[in-house]
Design a protein that fits this description.
The chain is mainly beta. Helix content is 0%, strand content 46%.
Length: 196
């Protein structure tokens, strides 16, 4: 590229070399190559396999109902399976998409703050997201940078008590679905806040 600050998009997974050639008005420099410098990976798929905390590997599997795996990270896609409750507490978790058929609790009783940021979509077709659990959670926050979709008649998002918030870039609520704000905060059209 002849751009001053070029951007390169890698479309193939794997480990890639990076070559830089710097040029000025006098001459072209010798190319410099960093072998195996960039790794491109496909997002992982994680399924809850039991009730548990987000940051515990035994909570997750690479298949629904499978053996224990690792903890999901940035860029990964997550499904909370029917009958499972997963809790985000004492941490900030960043993922790509989350699909909730079970229960996702963000923040926990007392002072166990929790934040979940989805850089993609949050989909709640038949499950429940509780932001602030037991009406006593402290600083529970859901940040959806894509679409937040509550569909079907049993999809529910509850934002409980002050100091808890849902920051949603876009919100889609289906017929007979539930969005409950009980003293918490709902900020639409934004993924940033000024209160905490």
């Amino acid at each position: 590229s002849t751009l001053q600050n070029p951007v390169v998009t890698y479309t193939a997974t794997g480990v890639h070399d990076v070559t830089l050639v710097a040029t000025n008005s006098c001459a072209s420099n010798v190319p410099m190559t960093k072998p195996l410098y960039i790794e491109v990976v496909t997002p992982g798929k994680f399924y809850s396999r039991t009730n548990g905390d987000w940051d515990v590997s035994s909570t997750w599997s690479s298949v629904c109902g499978g053996a224990a795996g690792s903890v999901p990270g940035a860029g990964d896609n997550v499904t909370i399976c029917t009958g499972h409750t997963v809790t985000v507490k004492n941490l900030t978790a960043v993922i790509n998409n989350v699909h909730v058929d079970g229960t996702l609790n963000i923040g926990k009783s007392g002072t166990s703050a929790g934040t979940l940021t989805a850089t993609g979509n949050v989909t709640v077709p038949s499950g429940t997201i509780n932001i602030g659990v037991d009406n006593t959670a402290y600083w529970g926050k859901l940040n959806s940078q894509g679409n937040c979709i509550i569909s079907n008649t049993t999809g529910t998002i509850n934002v409980n008590t002050p100091n808890n918030a849902a920051l949603l870039s876009k919100l889609h609520v289906g017929t007979s679905s539930t969005l409950s704000i009980s003293g918490g905060n709902l900020l639409l059209g934004t993924t940033t806040d000024n209160w905490g």
